[in-house]
């Protein structure tokens, strides 16, 4: 088992900040919904706290408050996308060097869960909640960048850590709606 004591302060900070950078990358992808998206990030951390004991490394990670290094953000010219990718690659490198295979998977899945929760927290586009997309194209691009930086952490199958996706209606479970302009027989 890998513990916080196995990391130096700088490496631990990089690992702890990984989920925050992933969430901020998705939040910065599109305008609107920042409050809901930030709250969604907090809920993922809260749910992880409630599952205390499943992963000692994650237990210690969520006890450590993450932060964004404003100096690094300035050096990156305010480009959160580039900074997030760099931070996530570095966090992955550190985790892969120190943790067990299962802890590596747990960490990457947690980061991915944060990013997914943020992406699904706010419907993009539409008007007054009608229409729009659950995840915008820009958010999907951000998710692709996060996935690439982490080495594709997307869980296969039924993952209990994955955020709950909204149920979408399909033609199989909805009856057709007739338009008033449709001709009626008879």
Order of helix and strand elements from N to C terminus: HHHHHHH
Shape assignment: globular
> Quaternary state, please?
single chain
Largest sheet: none
Low-confidence stretches: 156-186
Supply the key terms:
mainly alpha, 7 helices, globular, 186 residues, disordered C terminus
Brief description of this entry?
The chain is mainly alpha-helical and 186 residues long. The protein contains seven helices and no strands. Helix 2 (34-50) runs antiparallel to helix 6 and helix 6 packs antiparallel against helix 7.
Layout of helices and strands:
Blueprint: H1 9-29, H2 34-50, H3 56-63, H4 70-75, H5 80-98, H6 101-119, H7 137-150
Helix pairs in contact: 1-2, 1-5, 1-6, 1-7, 2-6, 5-7, 6-7
Describe it.
It is a single chain. The protein starts with 8 loop residues before the first helix and ends in a 36-residue tail after the last helix. It is globular, with a radius of gyration of 19 Å. Helix content is 56%, strand content 0%. The protein is mainly alpha-helical and 186 residues long. It contains 7 helices and no strands. The chain has one domain. The C terminus is likely disordered.
């Amino acid at each position: 088992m890998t513990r916080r004591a196995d990391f130096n302060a700088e490496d631990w900070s990089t690992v702890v900040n990984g989920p925050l950078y992933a969430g901020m990358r998705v939040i910065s992808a599109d305008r609107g919904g920042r409050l809901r998206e930030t709250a969604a990030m907090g809920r993922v951390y809260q749910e992880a706290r409630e599952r205390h004991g499943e992963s000692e490394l994650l237990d210690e990670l969520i006890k450590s408050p993450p932060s964004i290094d404003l100096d690094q953000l300035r050096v990156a010219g305010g480009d959160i996308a580039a900074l997030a990718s760099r931070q996530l690659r570095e966090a992955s490198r550190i985790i892969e060097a120190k943790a067990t295979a299962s802890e590596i998977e747990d960490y990457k899945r947690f980061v991915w869960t944060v990013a997914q929760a943020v992406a699904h927290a706010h419907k993009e586009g539409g008007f007054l909640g009608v229409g729009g997309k659950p995840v915008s194209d820009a958010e999907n691009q951000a998710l692709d960048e996060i996935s690439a930086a982490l080495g594709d952490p997307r869980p296969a199958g039924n993952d209990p850590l994955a955020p709950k996706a909204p149920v979408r209606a399909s033609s199989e479970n909805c009856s057709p709606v007739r338009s008033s302009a449709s001709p009626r027989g008879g």
